[in-house]
Structures
1.
Amino acid sequence: MVRHLAESGAIERDSEGRWTAATSLAALELPESIHEVVSGRVARLGPDAERLLRAAAIIGREFDVDVLARVAAVDEDAALDVLEAASAAALVAEAPGRAGRFAFVHALVNHALGDELTGARRARMHTRVAQALEEHAAGRLGPALGELAQHWAAADGPEARSKACDYATRAGRAALAQVAPDEAVRWFEQALEIQAGVPGADASDRRELLLALGEAQLQAGVPDFRETLLDVARMAEAAGDADRLIRAALANSRGYFSSAGFVDGDRVAVLEAALGMAARQDPRRASLLALLAAELLWSPGDHVRRRALSDEAVELVRADGDAAALAHVLTLRVTAVWSPETLAERLAVTGELLDAAEAAEDPVQRFWALVWRGATALQAGDPEDADRCLHALRRLTTRLGQPRLQFVLGTQETVRAQFDGDLDEAERSANTAVALGLETGEPDALSLFAAQLGPIRWQQGRLSEVAELLGQIVAEAPGVAVFGAMQALAEAEAGRAGRARELLERAGTDGFAGVPADPVQLGTFALWAEVAADLCAPAEAAALLQRLEPWRDQVILDALGTLGSAARPLGLVAAALGRVEEADAHFAHALAVHERMRAPSLAARTDLDWGLALQRTGRAGDQARASELLGRAAQATRELGLPALERRAREAAEAAPAR
C-alpha cells in the first residue's frame, strides 16, 4: 500500500525526508492488490454478507445496526448474524461500550468495498442511507446533521442537493453554537458549493449562507472574513436587503477598530449604507453608530464626530434595555473615546460594561469587557484590578479557543510581563502573538508588534536597535503618532542627534497641538518629552511640560505597551528647563507609582533618569543623592538582566567625582 501511495503521488517526502500526505484518503485510488484481499475475505462470507457490508461501507467507517438493517432491508437479527461473522473474519469490530454500533477495522476495508460499486449504485445507496438516518434520528437530528449532509450530497437529483445544502447549513450553525468555527467554515463552504448546483436557488439564501460563512471565518481566524462580509453587504445593498446589509456590517468587526493607523474606507461605506437603510426604530441602529465611531478612531479630524456618534449610540441602547446590545455599544465606546482626558469616564464605562456582558451571558462580549477594563485599570494605576481581569481572560480564552482571542490575550500577556520587569518573557509573548496574528490575518499584526517591541527595547535601553524598523512602521502607519516619536528617540539614542532634532522640530511646530486625541496620545507626548530633554530643546520641552501636566497621575498605556508613570517624562522636561524642585517632585511621584505597581524595571529607569538629572544641576548637595540613585539603578538593572541600562548607570556614577 505504501509503495502504491508513493508511486501514485498520494504521499511525498518533505524537506526533512518525512512522508506526508498530498491528498485525502477519500480521493485515493486503491491498488488492485488491496481490492483483491478485501474482496476475497468478504466473498468467503457469502453474497448476503457482501451486499450488507457494501451497504455498511456507504454508511461510513462506523455504523449502527438498526440503520444498516433499514438500508439493507433486512431485520436486525439477520444483520447481526452477518456482522458477527464479519467480526470473526477481522473485517469489523463492535464499538467498545456502545452496543449495536460497529466499525470497520480499517478505513481501507470500507473504502475498498465502496469503490466496487458503480456510481449510480452508490448514489442510490446514499439516498437510502440518508432516508434511514432521517427515520432513525427523527426528532433529534442534531448529532446526525453532518452525516445527512454528506449522504444527500452524494445522492443524485435536485431534491437531494437541496436537502444536502439545508443539512450542511444546519451543521454549520450547530458547529458555531458549539464554538467549533473551523468545522462551521467547512460546512458553510460545502453548503455554498452544493447550492451553486441547485437550479433556481434563491439569491437571498446565498447571501444568508455567505453571511454565515463570514461570521465563521472571523471566529476561526480565516483572513478572508473581511472580503466575504463586504461582498455580502454589497450584494444586500444592491438587492435592497436591509436586514442582511445591517447584519454583514455589524459582523465585519474585530471587536474594535479595523486596523491601527488607518480608516477602513470600505467598512465605513458599508456602515453608512446600513445606517441609511436601517429604520429609525431598528434596535441595531445603536450598534451601527457605535461601530462607525470606532472605525473612525484613526481619522484625526473626526474626534468630535466620533464622540457624537458614540453618544447617540449609548442613548439609543440605554432606552432599548437590551443587555447584549449595551455590552456591544459600551465595548466600542471605550475604543472610540480612548484618550488621556477620558480616563475617569472609561473607568465608569468599563465597570458598567462588565455588568452588561455578565447579564448578556455572551462569553465573547465578556472577553472584550475584560480586555478594556484591564487596560483602563492599568492606566489608572490599579494593578490588582488589572490582574483580576487578566486571570479571567486566560480562563475564558482557553474555554473559547478562538485564534483571534488568543492573539489579543498574547498582547495582554506582553503588557503584564513589561510591568513585571520580565522583558525576555515580554518579548517571547510578543513574538508568539505576532506569529498568531500573521497566521490568522490580523491586518496590523506587524505594527502592533512594533508597538510592543518599542517599549520593551526602551525599557532595556536598546531602542536604537529598532530605529530602522520604526522608520518603516512610520511610513506604513503614519496615522499612529507614537511611532514617529519613538523613532526620534531611537535616532537620538543611536547618536544621530541631527536627525532626531529635525523630527522633533517638525512635530513641535504648533506646540504639539497636531498630536491626535487617540489611544496613543499620552505615549506620544511622553516620548517627545524624552527627546526634547535629551536634546536640550527648551521650547519643545516647555510645550510638552504643559501638554503632559494634566495627566501626571496616569500610567502611560496604549493597551499594548507601557512607558510607566507620566510623571517620569514630566521630571525629564522640568529638569531640562532647570526647574529642579519641580523635577524632583515629578520623579518622586513616578517612583512611588512604579513601586506600587510592582514594576521593577520602570522603577530602575526612574532612578537612573532622576540621578542623571540631579548630576546635571551642578549643585553640591545634589551629587550625593545622584550617586545614591545611580548606584541603586545599577544594582537593579544588573539583577533584572538589563546590561545597557546598567552600563549607563554605572558609568554615570563613576563619572560623578570628575563632574
2.
Amino acid sequence: MPSAARRRRPAPGRWTTAAAGALLLAGCTSVVPGAAGYAPPGAAGHVVREPCPRSGFECITLGVPADHTDPGSPTWNVTFALHRGTVDSRGVLVTATGGPGSSGIAAADDRLAGMSTAITDHFDVVFFDQRGIGRSEPFRCDRTLGADDTEPLDATSTATERDRFAADATELARDCFAEAGVDPADAGRYATSQAVEDLESFRDWLDADQLVLYGESYGTQFAQTYAAAHPDRVAALVLDGVVDLGIDDQTFAAETAQAYSDVLAATLTGCDADDACAADAPGSALDAYDALAAELAGGPRSYDFPLEDGTTEERELTLDDLRSAASWSMSDPWSREQFQQALNSAGNDDAVPLDRLADASYGADPQTGEVVDDPAFSSGLYYAVQCADYDVVPAGSTGRAQLDRWLDGARTAGIDQARLGDIYYQDLPCLFWPGTGAPALRPGTAAALPYPLLALTADTDPNTPTQQAQRVFSRAVGNAQLVVAQGGPHVVYGRGDTCVDGAVETLVTPGQLAATGVTTCPGTVAGVYVPNPPTDAAGYTDPVDVLDATIDASLGNVAYTWWDGSGELAIGCDAGGTVRYELDDDAMHVALERCEWTPDVPVDGSFTVADSGAGDADGSLELPFAELTFDEGSGEISGTFRGQPLD
C-alpha cells in the first residue's frame, strides 16, 4: 500500500491568506461605549466594537491621530482583534505579523490555532491591521504596481539605464500615491514609529499595564520599535525571524540576497544526498539548476501547458520564472522539497510544475496567468513602510546618487554572481519614494533590557538571515535566549516544533526564559522527498507504484496545495486530462478524467482522502494496464495489474 508516513498531504489553504482576506471586511458594525469612552465615529478617540470575521475575536476600531507627533492631524481608524483568554486572563499577548503590508486580522485564526491552550486559555491574544491594510486606512496601489514594467538594473547597468530607472521609479511612486488617494506629503505617516503608537493607544484603551510582544519577520521590527519607545510597557519580547535594526537597508539587502542563494544551494545539495531525490534528478541537482538557468538566459523554453478542459496552450518558461519560483520556495522545508520536485521534472522535459510555482510566486491564477490581488497583503504598503523606516537618501544626497552607491555595492559584493542575487534590488524604488520630511527614526540598540528577550531563527532563513538574530541576541545582556532551528523555515514558532514552541510557551506562560544562551533545535533543510511520477509506463512495476504516483501527484500538485479549499478546483494534469477536487466537512474528493501525470498513461477514477485531505485515501482507479480498488486505512488492494488478478 502507499506509505502515508512518507507522503505529506497539507490541507489546501494552509499557506494561503487570500481566503481569509476575502472575509476581512465582512460582519456587522455597531458603535458602543468602550473602555476609553464613547465618541462619534471620525472623532479622535472614538471606539467601535463589533464581532470580527475571525472565530472568537472581537474587533475594536480606535480613532487615532494620523500623525502622533501632531495632535491637530486628521483621525485615522485602526482595528485590533481581541481574543479573550477562554479560562482567565493573566496577561495580553500581541502578535505583529510580517511584511510589511500584511493583515494581522486575516492571519489571526491560523496563528491562534498554532498556539498552545496554555496561552489561549490564560492570555488575551491580540492581532491587528496595521495602518495601511485591511480595516485600517488601507493604502493600496495594486493596479500601478501590477502594470509596472520598469527595466530591472544590475551592477553593469549604464548611466543611461540608471537615469531611465530613476525617472520610471519616480513616476511609479507618484502614481502609487495617486491610486491610493494619499498625499505624498503624508508618506511619513506609514512609518513603523507612527504605527507603534496606534498599539500604545490600544494598550491604554485595554487598560493593560504591560504587553507580551511576539513579532514575526517585519513584526520583529515593529515589536522592537514599540519596545524602544515604551520599554516599561513590555513584559517580554519574542522575536521570530529577526530584523536587525542596527543595519541599513542596503546591508540588509546584501545579506538577504546571499542567504537566498545559500539556502538554494543547500536545498539542491540536499537533493544530491537524498536517494529518492537523486534518483529523480538527471545528474547533480545544483548542476541541473545552473544548466537550466544558462539555457533560459539564452532564451525561454517553450512547452505545452495543460488547461482544465483537457486542452493545452503554448507557454514559455523564462529565467525570471525560474528565479522567482526558486526564491519563493526557499522560505520553508516543505516548499523547498516542492522546488526539488519541480526542478527534477524540468530536467525530464516537464516544465509544468516550475510554471505553477512561478505563477504562485507572482500571485497569478495557474490557468489564466492573471495576477489576483491579495486582500490580506498590500505591496503598496510594503513600500510605504519600508521606504519610511530607512534613511535611504541621507540629507544632502539624492536618490540618483544613492542608486549609484547601491549598484557599486552590488559590484563590490559580487551580487550578480549569486544565483538569487536579484533579491538585492527589491527596495530600489525607495530611493525615489516621497520623502518624509525628516530622517527615518531607528530605535537604539539597548543592551541591558528591562524585560526578557527570546530571539528565534533558522539557520536556513533567507528572508531575515540568521546572523541578524545572532547580532540582536549578542547585544542583549544576560536576560536573553537565542533558539536556532536547523534547516528551519522563515518564522519558526507555531509549526509543531516542540523545541521552538516550548521555549515560547515557557516565556509567555510562567514569564521566564526556558534557558539563557543559545539553544539548537535539530531539523532538515527540505521535507521528505516524494518522487515524481515515472517518466513512462514501464516505470510502474507494481500496484503500489500506481497508487503512490497517482495520489502523490494529485495531492502534491502546486495548484492544489495553494488552493484555498473553496468551491471546486479543476486543473489540467501535466501531460493531459483533468483532475478535480472538492472539499466537504470531512474529506477531500478527487476525480480524475483521462489524467496523465505520466505521458500516455491516462488515469480515470476517483478517491477520497480523510481529514480534509490529510488522512488515508480510498477509491478506485483505472489505467491502461491496471484496475485497482484500494483502502489505505485497511491496507487492502484488489483488482488487476498487467493482466494478473490481485489478492
3.
Amino acid sequence: MCGICGVIAQDRREDVGSTVERLMDRLAHRGPDGRGIRYVRERRAALGHLRLSIVDLATGAQPMANEDGTVWVTYNGEIYNHRALRAELERFGHRFQTRADTEVLVHGWEEWGPVLFSRLNGIFALALFDGRGSRGEIVLARDPLGVKPLYVGGDHERWWFASELAAVRHSGLAIGELRPDAIDEFLVYRFVPSPGTPYRHAWKLPPGHYCTVSLDQPLVVPRFHPYDPGFAPAALPQTAREWAGAVQSGLRAAVQRQLMSDVPVASLLSGGVDSTVVTRLMCSQLPMAPQAFAIGFGNEARGGELHMARAAAAAVGVPLEEVAVEDGDYLATWLSHVTRFGEPIANTGMLLVGLLCQRVGQTHKVVLSGQGADEPLGGYPRHAAERLYPFARRFTGLLRFVPERWAESDRVSRLRRVVSEPDRARRFTEILAVFSPREVEQITGRGDPDRLAQPVRTWLDGAADDDTLNALLRIDARLSLADDLLLIGDHMSMQSSVELRVPFLDLEFLALIERMPGRYKLSWSGARKWLYRRAVRDLLPPELVSGLTGPRARWGRKLGFSTPLDRSVDAWVATSAAPFLTGADAVLPEFARADAINAYVTSIRREHLSRSRQLLALYVLESWLRGAVAS
C-alpha cells in the first residue's frame, strides 16, 4: 500500500521537479519505506511513488519499468492473483526482474492494454506511462469497488494525479473554485459522488474506470471509461443449501488470497459477525493466531463495542489490543479531521478508524477487516425498503397518517417518499438520501431530482433489471461504500501507514455474491443477510452463533458505533445550530438559502423531529467549508 502522484506540464521547458517533490511531501505518511520519482520527457512530467513495503521487500521499489523502459507504473494496492498472471505473461515471453505484484502491471499492459484491468483481482489505483507512441500518454485506473482512491485534475498549464485531494490542495496545484452543484450532491448523499469533487477542476476516478491523457494535450474534463471485472463463478448454485456452501467456501478462499504478505497480518475485530468470521478464517490459515485490535468508548455500559470484541476474541482465541476513547476527547478531535479531509464526508465514525489504525501501525503494516459485507449482502435497514417496496406501495395512502415518532430517525418520512416514487433511479436515490432532492431544492434553490439521481442512474445502467434488490445493492456498493466508507478507510488507515484489506470485496467472491438472488439476502420478512448468516454458522465459535446469526442480528437494530456526536445533536439544535449555519461567520449561505436553513432548524426544534443525519450533514458541510475557504 502506497501513495502515488504525478505532475505533467504543458510547457516543454518547465521542470516539474520541485512541484512533484512538494506533492510527495504531503503524501509522505502513505509510504515511509521508500520514495521514488521517474521523470519523462526530460523533466516536464514526473511519476512519484511513496512505498509501504509489504510484498517483495527487497526489490519492489517504484516507479517500475518493463524490460526496455518504455512503460512505467506507479501503483497503490495489492494484486492478489499476480502469481497466476505472472505465469501467463512468462509464457508469452515477458521477463520478470522482481517478485513484486507491481511488475505484472507493466508487462500486462504491454500484452493486453486496457483489458489488463479486467484481469486484476485486487485493490488498486495506478498510473501507467506508455512511451511507445510518438506522443506518450498516461493511463490512470481505479479498482472495481474503489477501495483505493485516485484524483486527477489541473488547468491549461499543468495537470496532476494523486492518492489524496488534500495533498493536492495544500501543494499549490490548480483545483478550481468550489462547485455549487457539489453542495447539492453532498446534501443528498452525505458525500460527493464520483467522478465529482467539491472543486471545478478536480475529479475522482469512479470505481471500475480508467482514463487516458496525452502528455502533449491540455487537460479538459477527463473521459472516464468503464471496464468490467473478468471474474464469474464456473457454475451458479441453484438451491439455498448450495448457495450457503458456495458462500462459505468462497469467503474462505478470499481470506486466504488476502493474507498475501511478507510482513505479519493483523485483524480488526469489532465483535460483529463479519469481522469475527474473517478473524476465525485467518486463524485457520495462519501458523499462529493473528493479533486483533478493537476500539470503543471507555464510558460505555456493558454491551458496547469493546465488550463484544472481548467476547469474540476470547471465543476465537486471538490476542486483543483495545483502544478506549473518551467522549470529550472524541468531540475535541473529530472536527479537525473533518476539516482537513480533501472533501466533505458526513461520517461520524471516521476518527474511530483513524485512532484504531494509529494503534495498529505501532506494530503492524497490514490488517484485515469485515468492511464491505453489508452493501452487497443486504445488511442495512435501508435495503429492506426495496425488498418490501411492492407490498408497501399498496399502503401509500395510509403512510400519511403514521406518526414520525413511531420509527427511529427519519424512517417514516423517507418511506413515504420511497413508496411514492415509481421511477427506479429516483426511488433508489430516496432510499440512499440524507436530504431528499426536493428538500435540497428548498434549501439551495438548485435541486433537480433527475440531476441528483444521476449518480444512481449511472450505476443502474449496468445492473440487472430483473432483481431490483440486487440492483440497489450493486449501486450502494459503488456509491456509499466506495466514496464514503472505503475512502475514509483508506485515508484514515494510511495516516498511520497501515494497509486496510477487505476480503468481502475480493473480486472473485464478489462475483459470486452479486449473483446471489436478492431473496437470499433479505427475506420476505426483512431479515438481513439471512442466508449468509446461515452459511457462516459453522465458521463461528458455538458460544457466538446465537448472538451473531439469530433473530436479533437479522431483524434488530444494525449494530455499529454510536459516537458522542450522535448523542449531542439535540443540544446543538437547541442552542447553536442556526447561528453556526447561517450566522456572520458562516460560509454555507454563499451556496444555500439562509432563510430556508433557519426554517428547517426551527421546524425540527418546534415539532421535535428526529433529524440527526440531516443536522450532522449540515454541521459537517459548514465546518468543512470554513476550512476550505481558510486554506
4.
Amino acid sequence: MNQPNPAIVAQAAARRLPRGALLVFCLAYLLPGFVGRDAWKTADITGLGFIAELVQGSASWLHPTLMGAAPDNPSVLPYWLGAWAMQWLPSWLAPDLAARLPYALLLALAMASTWYASYYLARSPRAQPVAFAFGGEALPKDYARAMADGALLALIATLGLAQLGHETTPAVAQLGFSGLLFYALATLHYRPRSSIVSAWLGVMGLGLSGAPALALLFLAGGVLIHVLDSNSEAASDEHDPHKALTTALLLGSGLVGAYLCLRLDLWRWKVEIPQASWAELNGALQLLGWFTWPAWPLAVWTVWRWRRQLFNRNISRHLALPVWFVLVTLGSTLTTGSPDRTLLLGLPAMAALAAFALPTLKRQVAALIDWFTLIFFSGCGFIIWVVWIAMQTGYPSQPAANVERLAPGFVPHFSAFAFAMALVATLVWAWLVQWRVGRHRAAIWKSLVLPAGGAALCWMLLMTLWMPLLNYTQSYNALVDHTLERLEPAGCVETVGLGPAKTAALQVYGKLQLRPMQAQATCPWLIAEPYQDLSVPTSIDSRQWDLQAQVRHPADGNETVLIFRRR
C-alpha cells in the first residue's frame, strides 16, 4: 500500500518552460567561462599543461605527465579528450579554447542528464501527485517535465558549479560522467537498452577520469535500488524476467571498469580521515552551505516532506536513487583532499532531489526564496557594474582605488561586445524579476527561476565586464609576460622547483622548452621558484649561474620566479 504523497499539483502548475528559452538560458550559462578566458591558476592551467604535453608527444598517453611528474589525481580520459580536440579542431582556433570544448560538452552532458534523470524519476508512480476527487491533477508527463525543468534550474543555481564547472580539470569530466550514470540508473525501467549503454559509458568515464571507487559505489547502490524496486509504471511485475539480465549487465560494467582502471594504475588510496575538531567541521559545513546553495535546503526539505515514502520498506526510486548519490558524495567530500571538486559529483542528484521539494513548498517559503534571491543577486550585479564603471572612468574613486591596489599595473580597456552582452543579461534579469513578481503563481518551477537567473546573470557579468581583470589577477599570463621580457631567445630553459601550474603556464602561454636542471644540460637560462623567504634554492650552483632578475606576479607577491643565466 502506498504511503501518503505530499505532492498536490494541479494541471495548471505543470506548465513547462518554453524549450527555446530554456536552451538559450543554458547556453548563456554554459559558454561564458569556456570562451574568451585564459586558464586560471592553479588546477585549470595545470590540466591544460598535461593536455599540451600529450599533443607535443613528450608524455605517454597511458600515463600523462607534466615535466615527468604524474597528476595528483591519476586520470587519463579528460586529458585525452582535450588533446584530441587540440589535434583535430582547426588550427585557427586558439589551442586553449580547443582544449576546453570537450569540457564544455561534458558540462552540457551533466545538465542534460540532470533534466532527463529527473524527468523519468518524476514519472515513477510514487512520485506522482495526489489524484483529485473530480480530476484536474497534473498529467504524469506534464508533471514530470515541469519537475525536470525545476531540477535543471536548481543545478544552474548552485553557486559552486560556476567556476569549477568551467575548468579544464578531471573534476568536470567526473561531473559529466556521474550525471550520465545517474541518468542511466534513473531510466532503467523506461529505456533499458539506452540505460545500460549509458551506465557502461558512465562507469568507464568516471573510472578513467580518476574516480573508479565512486563509480562502483554509485553503481552498486543504483543496482540494489533497481533490484528492490518492483513498483514501476514500465515494469509492474515483481518477477520481471529482464531484471536479472539488466542487473547482470550493470554489474558487468562495474567489473570491466574496475579491471580497466587497475590495468591503467588508476586506483589510489585517497581517503583522508578528517580530524575531530571544530575547525574541520566548521570548514566542511561552510563549504557545503555555500557550494550547494540553494539546492541543499530544498533537498533537506524533500527528505523531510517525503520521509514516509523514503523510510519505507518499499523502495521509492525517485527518492532513494538521488539520496544514495548525495550520501556517497558527501561521504567522499569529508574524506578527500579536494572536497570542493568531489562535491561537484553530487550536484545533479542534489538538484533532482531539490526539485521534489517544489510541489510541497508553501507560498510564504516561496516568497522568502524570491525576496532573498532578488536582493542577493541584484546586489551582486550592482556591485559588478559599479566596479566596472570605476575601472573605466575612475569614478567612484574608492572602487577604482581598490582595483589599483589589488591589481597594480592593470590597464582596463573597453569592449563593445562584452558591454553589449552584459547589458542584455541585465535587461533579461530585470524582465525576469518583473515576470516573477507578477501574477504567475501556477508554474511549479517558479521558485527556482530567480535563483537560476541570478546565478547566470552574475556569472555572465563576471565573464564579460570583469574578464580582463580576472585574467590579469587569476592567470599566470602577466607573470609569463614579465618573464619573457627578461629572457633572450633561447633553445631551452632549465627549471628548478617550479610547481606544475607555473610550468604549464610557461610551456603553454610562454611557449618555452622547459626541462629539469641536470648536470649535463647546456641550456643558457634557468627559471627557479624561490623558497618562502625568497632565497635562492640551494641546488643552484652559483659558480654556473648568475641571478638576472626576480619576477613577481603583479597581483600576487607570493607568486615569484627567479631567472638565472649560465655563465
